[in-house]
Write a structure and sequence with these properties.
six-stranded mixed β-sheet
Length: 189
């Protein structure tokens, strides 16, 4: 059985400023750098060795991955965050009171994408990654919304959502017979 470690990037400037950060980008904060280093220490302590690594094309994800491992990795647009259109870089208060169901179509009116589009993009990308024979234990760094929407393709995400998807949260999936199963969520912060 194969294992996928899908994780969210470290804390960024926009996270601290409570700004919507989809395809736009902001740098990791000092705290975000420390979060990534804690993940590296966790993987080392647990003896987890990756044979392949992947990252969203966003700088915050690449920077997080590079703090965790110095192994070569592949940047994939399929691991990008949901696109929020005209709301990119705006205040998170514009998102409050939205349910996951609301997000399926809410961002379309602003030129963004449906959360179902993000879900399907993530599912296709992660399946392609794990279908490669040489990929047995994989690290992929992505985003909160992308990770949440991917989880929707595997199971009801609401129980995990209640616990929160903090920065550097790690979703451990088992992959067997073309199917993903969430084994656990690691929250080091």
């Amino acid at each position: 059985m194969k294992t996928l470690y899908l994780m969210r990037h470290g804390e960024t400037l926009f996270n601290v400023q409570k700004k919507i950060q989809g395809w736009c980008d902001s740098p990791l904060t000092e705290n975000g750098i420390q979060q990534a280093k804690k993940v590296k220490e966790y993987f080392e302590r647990e003896g987890i060795m990756f044979d392949h690594a992947y990252s969203s094309t966003s700088e915050r994800c690449c920077d997080t991955l590079e703090l965790i491992t110095n192994m070569p990795y592949t940047r994939l647009k399929g691991l990008k965050e949901n696109f929020y259109g005209e709301l990119e870089g705006e205040s998170e208060r514009l998102n409050r009171h939205l349910t996951p169901k609301d997000c399926e179509t809410f961002y379309l009116q602003f030129g963004g994408e449906s959360s179902n589009t993000t879900r399907d993009r993530m599912a296709a990308t992660l399946t392609n990654i794990m279908e490669k024979d040489e990929n047995q234990c994989v690290l992929a760094v992505s985003h909160s919304g992308a990770c949440f929407n991917y989880l929707r393709s595997v199971q009801d995400p609401m129980e995990e959502l209640k616990k929160g998807f903090g920065n550097c949260c790690i979703f451990v999936y088992k992959y067997d017979k073309h199917r993903f199963f969430l084994e656990k969520v690691i929250r080091l912060q």
